[in-house]
From TrEMBL:
Residues 3-138 form the N-acetyltransferase domain. It comes from Bifidobacterium phasiani. GO terms for molecular function: acyltransferase activity. The keyword Plastid does not apply. This is GNAT family N-acetyltransferase. Its EC number is 2.3.1.-. InterPro entries: GNAT_dom (IPR000182), NSI-like (IPR045039).
Amino acid sequence: MDVSINTLTPELFLALYTSVGWEAPCLEQVGEALRNTTATFTAYDGERPVGMVRLIGDGGMSFYIKDFAVIPEYQARGVGTLLMERLEGCIRERIDPGWAVSLELISTKEALPFYVKRGFEERPCAWDGPGMFKMVRR
């Protein structure tokens, strides 16, 4: 298994995105999102793309995990862990020594154990409110 950085195309994004049953945006919208993404990570089994994740953020205090998808037949086989390791390594390379940054996401119910195992806290927690989500349409 190998992970490439910043090679995700809109077409590949859509193939991986829809492989997990998500309703995809149009190709142009994906292209715009990728152009404004901090980094993308694509997992390959040989030549076959099997997973992806996007990292967005401000580079100083906050980063956000978006569009984390592993094709169903490769789930629970270490692909997600590999993608997460590369993503967190990328963040560590981008920030100055001594800095701590917030890494956030909205999880599906099924993926909660995966994230908790990697040190993420569920929201709400004892000291903070829940994560929030809203779609804005035009």
